[in-house]
Amino acid sequence: MLPKNLSAKELEELLIAIDGYFVLNYSNKALFDPLQLKEIEGFLDLRHEVLTKYQALSPHKYLSI
To answer: What pTM does this model have?
Structure first.
């Protein structure tokens, strides 16, 4: 659960950090490892929550991320 008072800039930075972590820490092989797949699901859920809040604050800027 995210804090309710994050700014659009903070949410954008969080999206970048989540994407960077994902790219640097998971490979195609991770999709076949049940434990890593569960972690990936968690990251995708978190990213969805962050993106939803970001879209609410900056409805047009999210398209550039």
So the answer is: 0.77
